[in-house]
Each structure stands twice: as C-alpha cells, then as structure tokens.
Amino acid sequence: xxxxxxxxxxxxxxxxxxxxxxxxxxxxxxxxxxxxxxxxxxxxxxxxxxxxxxxxxxxxxxxxxxxxxxxxxxxxxxxxxxxxxxxxxxxxxxxxxxxxxxxxxxxxxxxxxxxxxxxxxxxxxxxxxxxxxxxxxxxxxxxxxxxxxxxxxxxxxxxxxxxxxxxxxxxxxxxxxxxxxxxxxxxxxxxxxxxxxxxxxxxxxxxxxxxxxxxxxxxxxxxxxxxxxxxxxxxxxxxxxxxxxxxxxxxxxxxxxxxx
Amino acid sequence: xxxxxxxxxxxxxxxxxxxxxxxxxxxxxxxxxxxxxxxxxxxxxxxxxxxxxxxxxxxxxxxxxxxxxxxxxxxxxxxxxxxxxxxxxxxxxxxxxxxxxxxxxxxxxxxxxxxxxxxxxxxxxxxxxxxxxxxxxxxxxxxxxxxxxxxxxxxxxxxxxxxxxxxxxxxxxxxxxxxxxxxxxxxxxxxxxxxxxxxxxxxxxxxxxxxxxxxxxxxxxxxxxxxxxxxxxxxxxxxxxxxxxxxxxxxxxxxxxxxxxxxxxxxxxxxxxxxxxxxxxxxxxxxxxxxxxxxxxxxxxxxxxxxxxxxxxxxxxxxxxxxxxxxxxxxxxxxxxxxxxxxxxxxxxxxxxxxxxxxxxxxxxxxxxxxxxxxxxxxxxxxxxxxxxxxxxxxxx
Lengths: 260, 397
Hints:
heterodimer; A: 260 residues; alpha/beta; TIM Barrel; 13 helices; B: alpha/beta; Rossmann fold; 6-stranded mixed beta sheet; 4-stranded parallel beta sheet; 14 strands; 18% strand; globular
C-alpha cells in the first residue's frame, strides 16, 4: 500500500512543489490555517518546521522565524495539539515535520513518533540525525508508526551512501542544491550544479527527488524541477509571510506566483 | 592506550559524544575522522609539531611551586604556567596542531569560533605563521567585552565577524562558524577551540592539549619525586584546558580530577554557566553531552563574568567524567573568581585570566591537606581582562 507521499508523486510525477514554513510563525495559531491555504493553492507537499533555538543547517531567515515562533510560545506540545484536527481539513496532502533532534529527544522519540502519527504526519526530516544512529536506535520506531525518514544529499555525498539512504525510505530524497544553509544564493556555477543533479538522476534510485536550498521564485523552481521531480521552497516563503497582514492569503498568493 | 576514557570508533564516551551533523558537513567530518589519528601519529607531523611547541609556543611551560598560595591554603600548590605560552593561553597548543593537520588535508582557508578571544587569537596567530586565510566568528557581546583580543586578531591579519544572532556569545559564534563550514565544504578547515563538536573534535583537541599533563608528570617527578599529584584542578567552559591537564591522569585513580565551572551570580540564580549541575543530556554543536536547556529542548543562554566560560554545554569527555564519578565538579561564583584574581596577583605576582581564576577560587573547597600535591592549570593570563578588573576594582582590593 502506498503512503501519502508516494501517492502524491504517483498522482503528479513532475513539478511537485513542497513548501516549508515554521510552525507558530508569523503568529502562534497560523499553523493549521497555513497548511489549509497552501493545500488549496496547490502545494503538493508541506513541510512544517519545528522551531529550535540553534538551527545549524538553516540560514538567517529561518532562524529568525524560529526565534519568533518560540517567542510566540510554539513547542511540540502546542504543535501536536494544533495538528489534531488537520487531517479532517487536509486529507490527502503529505505532511512532513522538519527539525532538529534535541527538542525531540527531550519530548521523547517514541512519544514524538506516536503523536506525529496520530496527527497524520507522513514523514520526518531531521538533518542532524546521523544515519547510523537512525538505523540502530530509531528505524524500528519510525516503522512502527509508519513515518518515512527523508535524507539530505549534497554534491559531496558519496554514491554508495546515496544508495544506502535510498533503501531506508519510501518517501523522497532531498537534494541540497549546493553548498550553504537554507535561503542562501547558490554560489556554484550552474553547469556544475546541473552536472550534480544529472549524476543523481542517472543513478536510477527507487525514490523520487526534490531539490531544495536557494529555490525562491517561479524561475528557480522550474529550473530545479527540470532536474528532479520537484523542488522545496522555504526561506522565500517565510519572507513572504513576514509582514503579511493575512498569512493564509499571503500563502495562496505565494504558491500562485510559483505555479501559475 | 586502552581506557574507558578514550572514545569508541563512533566518538562516544559512554552515552556522550557522537557526530550529530547535517549531511552538508558529513564529508568534512568523515575526512577528519578517517585521517586524524594517522596524521597525528606520523613522525614528520610530530617532528614539526614538537618543534613549533618548543620554539614558537615556548614549551615546556614551567611548573611553578606557589609557596605563598600554599601557605595560605596549607597545602602544596603548583601552577602549570600555560599563561606563559605564546599568545597567553593554552589555546595555542591546539591551533598549532590543527593548522599542521589542515595543511596535510590540503585546506587553504581556516575558520574558528571564539568566546574570550584566546582561541581566536591563537588561531589568527598560526594562520599568520602559515600564511593562511583566517576568519574568526565571535559573539557581538564578546567583541565588546574582550576588545583587546579583537584588535590582536585584526593585527594578525584575521577577519573578525561579530555574530549578532541569538545571545551573541560563544554558542552563537559556534553556530555561525558551523554555517560557514557548511557553505565552504571543500577548501576550509574549522579549527574548533575546545573539546566540543562532532567526533573526532573532542578527541583531537584533547590529544593536542594532552601535552600539558604529559609535561606535568615529568615535572612533578623532578620536583616532588613522584609523577602523580593528589589533585589536578582546571576550569571548564567547553573544557579544553581541563582535558589537557587531566589527560595523562585519567587512568590514575589516586589522582583527584577537579573541574571548576562558572556559577555566575549563583548556580540557581538564572545567571549561571554551571552545566554539570544545571545541564541534562542533549545535543549541541554536533555531540550528545550535558547541556543547559529548557523543558522543550531549547538551548538556554548561560551567563558568566568570563566570556570563555559562558557556554551552555561541556565537552562529552567531561560529561562522562562527571557521570562516571571520575571527576569532581565545583562551581564558583563571579565574586569568588574576582577574589581569586586579587589573591593570585598579590601572593604570586601572576595576574590570571578570569577563566583561570575560577580554578584558583576552588582551592578552599578541595579539602587538600598539608602533604597533598595540588596542580592548578593556570590556563591563561589576565591581560585581556584588565578592563573587567578595572571595572570591579573595589572587589579586587
């Protein structure tokens, strides 16, 4: 039986848009209205950031949104409470939680996975969870609750490591577009980047691929989607929410600006 | 050496350690992990490292019998004079070793984080020596309270980046340095200044600092007729000077290892950096260790009068030393550290760094007797803290 993430890729195949935002940003109770608005506007997957005080892989835009969300009172208890009703409103869209290990460890990994599964979460993106620790300590728990891990790949990731990651998930592989944290401009020459995307495409992996980091508008989305099954946008969407008087309206407008 | 105090292949000391890093850093850390032991053991590396330690750093540093302090505390106190190292602190032992390592890894660009500025200065120094580009990340708050060190780094040719995120101190400087490394994965080596970070850094830095305890053993044999003291005392922020001072005594159970943390305004005042008391297991900067955090796993902001000690974690080795009972932890408040500054200055003619003063302030709590040999690692000198000392002149009387 296909999971929701696989269904989304089976249904569309190409040009899938995955939108990231930080839970509790810009306002504490924007989380669920934003998920609904993004879905209505045509986002294919939604990545919900769990704010952390020290988000190492993220750039200044997402770090700032995390600080605001934490100051708003967001934490995992609040988030799961908010997500309790989300599946009634958004039955099909794959939902992924993205964040760092430390808050999850304090919450308790098993309790976290159970709460995520009960809320209808499909996958987890935990950039600082090492592969070995995942396999030894957490894989069985993820499986028990039907949660798919999503692994990041960079231009420096060795092919055998990519193949190994590919066996550990039934979701997608997250291709980091080039060196840098989220929201950064891609400093690498486009040709070099394309060669990397094509190299991964040529590996005939089991899972589809989404490209992320530095994708911020229709043009970069289309380019990235041309080298994979779609792309992930985070920082640019956070910026669009920054001073928006109506966050869901801003979300609908943002997705339209990418897809239409 | 097989010892329970050596990390296993994945960098764990008991439950602490590991390498919790995003994939963007995996190749860099893997390269370092695969090569550091081999490079450190290479005779050519050792020859160059030892020569620089001798002729550039000024090693061996003296082990000085502090007779007036001894009389004051009725025990036998020796000061390991790391303050006499080039650049004024033990930090340079590590940066000399890591710059040689970086050269052998073919890196051309060096980044570092710094709190008090001692590690930044030590890194800028070796980069100047080797003609390598150097970028030092420092919390904006720290650039203000440790101005002389900022100027020294600039004079040495380093670019100092004032970090304005988070609490604008050491933790945030470390975050920014890691982000720089993520953005420059091929040509850059990150010289971490303490026994923190993902494996193999805690072990690498401990090994490079272990020269301190190696010398202590030889010097004690000469001076007191035995290699083993009764106490070794060192201050702990991240824990590099303590790791170096403890290293060759870890498997000598007769030696009491004492790690001294900054209690700030008081352990439970809400303005403290006493991680061993206030910390719980968690992940910071790539390793699982003890860490100051709230119930939701958000890292909290530590406080100490000394910029070098206000770090919300400690190295995984120290977390393990505490958990296993091998080391005893003592917490010292700001005021008592300042008193120790005055005492060491007046009794021995040595003005210690504020960080080191915490170790000195623990003397009264050790319980050492008249025949006990106590070695304090005098990790750095107080020139950089003169502005703070002037500000608290009334407390230093």
